């Protein structure tokens, strides 16, 4: 199973990173649709598409507008949007408000349930602490498990939910010196995420939702993370991970 990081930045795109998106082409699934969503048709074969939205903040949903052309041309024969009722309502009434984007693509709006079967995948979701709310997702397919956790402040309240996963994709918006911003913004810092991965005994940790203001090659202090959890990687746009 290939996991493709479409966008690994948070808040806004920069020259290096687009905002949130992770694709599993074999499963026809995408998590979030930020500015990276223009890449979805490039990595996803034609046919049906399933998009799971963590929440309605613009850096996670604005790319839904980019799916209009692939749906109109028939490249995607259908597109199911999964999200909470509040997220789907926000997308309908705000992102696709007529003065902003006058054509609503042919989405099928699907409320999240505790467990969803999507082809040969089983997806569970969990509510996270974030301003306005956010959902994390856990996907199981052919004995492999990944967890996608974005826009939350890392803590051990969900350690059992991610325990032992083959791949933990977790947001890491701040370095440790900026920890003071985590609680007000609902985001995470380096050591807290690494400690969570260690406590949960995950196999691999990939950090995403990187601060877009930091264009350096080490935006999260990777050495610090690896001192706690050695199997840590900072994800880059279009990185492919095979499980």
Task: Write a compact overview of the structure shown.
The protein is an alpha/beta fold and 243 residues long. It has helices spanning 40-43, 58-61, 68-72, 85-95, 159-162, 182-185, 190-200, 222-228; strands spanning 2-7, 21-24, 29-31, 47-52, 76-83, 107-111, 115-118, 121-128, 134-141, 144-149, 167-171, 205-208, 232-234, 240-242.
Explain this structure to me?
The chain is an alpha/beta fold and 243 residues long. The protein has a single domain (2-238), classed as Ribonuclease Z/Hydroxyacylglutathione hydrolase-like (Metallo-beta-lactamase, Chain A, 4-Layer Sandwich), CATH 3.60.15. It is built from 8 helices and 14 strands. The protein has helices spanning 40-43, 58-61, 68-72, 85-95, 159-162, 182-185, 190-200, 222-228; strands at residues 2-7, 21-24, 29-31, 47-52, 76-83, 107-111, 115-118, 121-128, 134-141, 144-149, 167-171, 205-208, 232-234, 240-242. The strands form 2 sheets. The chain has a 7-stranded mixed beta sheet with strand order 6-5-4-3-2-1-14. Strands 7-8-9-10-11-12-13 form a 7-stranded mixed beta sheet, covered by helices on one side. A hairpin with a 2-residue loop joins strand 9 and strand 10. Helix 7 (190-200) packs parallel to helix 8 (222-228). It is globular and about 50 Å long.
